[in-house]
Amino acid sequence: MYSAIYSGALCGVSAYxxxxxxxxxxxxxxxSMVGSLGSExxxxxxxxxxxxxxxxxxxxxxxxxxxxSPADMRxxxxxxxxxxxxxxxxxxxxxxxxxxxxxLFLGELGLDGELKKARGVLPIVRAAGAGGVRQCxxxxxxxxxxxxxxxxxxxxADNICEVxxxxxxxxxxxxxxxxPAEKVxxxxxxxxxxxxxxxxxxxxxxxxxxxxxxxxxxxxFHNLLMTGPxxxxxxxxxxxxxxxLPDLTLEESLEVTAVVSVAGLxxxxxxxxxxxxxxxxxxxxxxxxLLGGSAYPRPGIISLAHRGVLFLDELPEFQRTxxxxxxxxxxEHRVNISxxxxxxxxxxxxxxxxxxxxxxxxxxxxxxxxxCTESQIRRYMGKISGPILDRVDLCxxxxxxxxxxxxxxxxxxxxxxxxxxxxxxxxxxxxxxxxSGYRFNGDIEASCIDRYCGLGREEQxxxxxxxxxxxxxxxxxxxxxxxxxxxxxxxxxxxxxxEHLLEAASYRPSxxxxx
Length: 515
What we know:
The chain has helices at 39-42, 44-54, 81-92, 121-130, 143-147, 160-169, 172-178, 186-189, 208-220, 234-240, 250-262, 287-291, 301-304, 320-324, 327-332, 374-381, 386-390, 415-432, 449-452, 457-469, 474-490, 498-506; strands at 2-11, 14-25, 30-34, 63-69, 103-105, 108-109, 115-116, 135-139, 153-157, 224-227, 278-279, 292-293, 298-299, 309-312, 334-339, 342-347, 351-356, 394-397. By secondary structure, the protein is an alpha/beta fold. The longest helix has 18 residues, at 415-432.
């Protein structure tokens, strides 16, 4: 007998429908699987056979053939266990013919029949809805994640016995009572909870210039580099930037959740990622771990930081090849990974925040404490290439914190006040970019600079002087204009003034040791 069951497979952060075809025929007993399968998928036959035996269903002595179509697309992961089991049961006649028609199945089987958490449920359910499949049966741990997609009814099951009982019920109220469709209130998920503890800028003493730079970076989603001696507060400031960023929109939340889901990092029972990511890899991170890769690609750290903050602490300690590999993702907001198994594209639209010491010992230019030679400083700073620095919008130098700033009750401004100004600037950008596809000033492409960052005659003269005196590249020139546009938004101005340009230019990295 023959049966065909819908399932889904991942390709990057998107998914496509897979037809799991099962044929049971007389002949030498066996269980063969075809369809360009990874090792985990091939192991499904052992898990399926043992799981069915342990729930009281014995497979007949016959030849079972399973084909996962389309056969020219590589299939990875363990989530094909459930559709294979359902297909076998329908072909055996244990389930009524057509009982699984129009349904998608996804999930790994334990040897006792338990349904275990799967990865990539959200993009697969989205693909199912787009393909006309109106019901999806997934592991209970993934039910809320899939239920945020309104195009298909998602039902969560904890073991295969529940799935069998549901399919035998034949639909209607009886079946709904066995496996009710999961409901998720997306609006409730996005309600900001006042009781959530998050680091506050009020804890940062002094560092007025760095706080200002962080505010500008947050308002326009610009890249930020902070230099200064150890203990000046670089890491503290970086860790508080997510708290002043605008909330994720629903569309952005779905993008972030899809990446986390594909990476298999969704927490059990979670439906959506509603907070902007903050990722801070150690400086020993490999290029594959940062960008994504391996033989069968998975999202890297820059993709897990999508729509959020990627913080690189101790920047010169990272391998130069690893840092240089960030050039293209920073510009294109995506990373393309090519392997023998195929090509995938992952999103990587993040705010880059970096921190570093000014020299190997960390105390330059204080010659009372710094003993580094000029060549040591140049070699240390030279670990960061010019093209990477050219992609930094704001560079700010932190000074050691004075004793006066450390006194209790210094009156430092909190994250709530800063976030209020950032949100007002964000509203101005939202109106300006309506219908353009841009979200922040940091997104503006070079072809649209004149449209959104137009200058008057006096301001054009100022920029000409800055271009020559600072020896700017074309990219740095455009970045100054985008930062100036953000400063003007924070000031509530419709046009960019000379003072905005001068402040933006003051944040360009010094080239003293990078030439």
